[in-house]
Amino acid sequence: MSPATSTAAHRTRRRALRALAVTVLAVPSLVAAGGAAEADTARAAKYCSPVGTWTAQVTTSIPSAGTTSFTFRADGTMGNDTDTWYRTGRTTFSYDIWHPHRDASGNVDGSVEGHQDAVMSDADHWTSHGVSQVIDLQGNVVSSFTVDVVATRTS
Question: In the beta sheet, which residues pair with residue 152?
């Protein structure tokens, strides 16, 4: 082997070893960064979860206002057998409500059905906006109104 070939081979070998060393040193960082990113994603998913109990101020276009509570369960159900929720994004979710509508005497004369789109501002607060309808026993829409909710986590 000539001295020029030996020097070129030595340089090539040195470059290959340097590239290998850089790769070996970089892989743990990438793995750790990937693990950290996965942990951040898991933390964000938990951070933005509505699962729990909430107290809320509700305002409608009827007009009416009041305080209520919501319970969101991990399985997508809420505090009763008819209401459901589902995640729509990292910090967003939607929920659907249904409950009987009663006349002035307390008799069921239809139902109230509503859909809300919610945004969590942090782990303990969300707001939502949607439309609810009063539907009579024959399935006719009697009235429609907007609903705005501002909620704070209680547990």
Answer: 55, 125
CA distances from 81 to 24, 40, 67, 99 (A): 55, 33, 21, 10
Structure tokens at 30: 């990438």
For 96-105, how does the pLDDT look when each residue is reduced to its tens digit (9 = 90+)?
Answer: 999 999 999 9
Q: What is the largest CA-CA distance in the chain?
A: 107
Prediction pTM value: 0.69
The residue among 112 and 28 whose pLDDT is bigger is 112
Q: What is the rounded distance in angstroms from the CA atom of residue 144 to the CA atom of residue 86?
A: 23
Whole-number Cα distances in Å, 120 to 28, 33, 94? 35, 27, 11
State residue 80's pLDDT score.
86
The contacts of residue 99 (CB under 8 Å, 6+ apart) are: 80, 82, 83, 111, 112
- 101-123, pLDDT tens digit by residue? 999 999 999 999 999 999 999 99
- Give the H or E element holding residue 34: helix 3-47
Count of other CB atoms within 10 angstroms of residue 132:
21
Angle at 144 between CA 140 and CA 149, to 5 degrees: 140
What is the rounded distance in angstroms from the CA atom of residue 143 to the CA atom of residue 64? 14
